[in-house]
Amino acid sequence: MDSQDAVTTVFREVLNLSTVDPEVGFLDLGGHSLLAVQVIALLRERYKLRVPTLQFLENASASAVAASSQPLEGN
What we know:
Structural class: mainly alpha
Strand content: 5-15%
CATH superfamily: ACP-like
Protein name: Carrier domain-containing protein
InterPro entries: ACP-like_sf, PKS_PP-bd, PP-bd_ACP, Ppantetheine_attach_site
Organism: Rhizocola hellebori
Largest sheet: 2 strands, antiparallel
Keywords: Phosphopantetheine, Phosphoprotein
Pfam families: PP-binding (PF00550)
């Protein structure tokens, strides 16, 4: 699974949506800051991806989050 698929999957799960357009922002999809923290934690835990919180909140479409994500050190 690539990083965009991982982010889209987590967005769908956290926001309880059946589909997510990867170009639409997390906040526009109904997310808020507490859910954003949950998304970041799930990406780290499940997919071993590090997403900077500030970058997430500034530009939070699934495609932008995937582009700014990095594998955790040691993985």
